Amino acid sequence: MKRNKATCDANSCFMCQNCIEEWRPAICANKTNYKLRKGELIFKEGDPVTGIYFVYSGNVKVYKKWDADKELILRFAKDGAILGHRGIGDDLIYPISASALEDSVVCYIDMKFFESTLKVNNQLTFQLVNFFANELRISERRMRNLAHMPVKGRVADALLKLQAQFGKTDSGLININLSRQDLASYAGATYETVFRVINELVNENCISLTGKSIAIVNTDALTELTKSI
User: Fold this and answer.
1) Is residue 187 scored above 70 in pLDDT?
2) 33 Cβ neighbours under 8 A, 6+ residues apart
3) Which positions ≥6 away from 154 have C-beta within 8 Å?
4) How distant, in Å, are the alpha carbons of 50, 94, 122, 189, 194 from that of 145?
5) Could you tell me which of 179, 183, 28 has the C-alpha nearest to residue 108?
6) Which alpha helices (H) appear in the chain, and where do they start and end?
7) Residue from 13, 2, 35 nearest 103 by CA
8) pTM higher than 0.70
9) Which range, of 98-112, 113-127, 215-229, averages the lowest pLDDT?
């Protein structure tokens, strides 16, 4: 990662939004911005925790190793999102990895200052607890889906979630550049299986393709597939 001179408004990330206004100059004095190339690691599973990251611009994937050469994408993070919070606790290593899906900029805050920020800003601490609780609920649903939902339902669920998070382009495409391998890792399936399911969904007029991009044509049909547990 290379240091980046981009200035932020100290108002848009998860931490700044939930801090008292008087604390924001301290954040500006203690943050470091880094520029990332597409595919570049921010931190790796097993690395010692040194601090917390926030996405300033771009898109990031957060994932965990499935086996030696596979990964399971846990979530995607875009502008303002927090990264590295799973490393908070007694065992100070990152249990997951994060890398840039495209050229991005992240803001780094070292752990000592972040802990001080939590002690001063009650609203931030409260919202962080809510964020952890929501992530736990999502993780529990993911575990259920991986165990019981057919692959076709998981792919449909992944596409619906991506559109809900990133929206659509003017031409109706899901507004994120995602490889088929990353889509497979997000759905918890193999590349070959997802490739087959995508073709089935196209033939059933549930989705349409423009190059590597996907547009949802029939939201109701995809939603119905997610109920098949």
Assistant:
1) yes
2) 3, 4, 5, 6, 8, 56, 105, 106, 107, 108
3) 145, 146, 187, 188, 189
4) 33, 25, 35, 12, 16
5) 28
6) 14-17, 24-30, 111-120, 122-148, 151-166, 180-187, 191-203, 219-225
7) 35
8) yes
9) 215-229
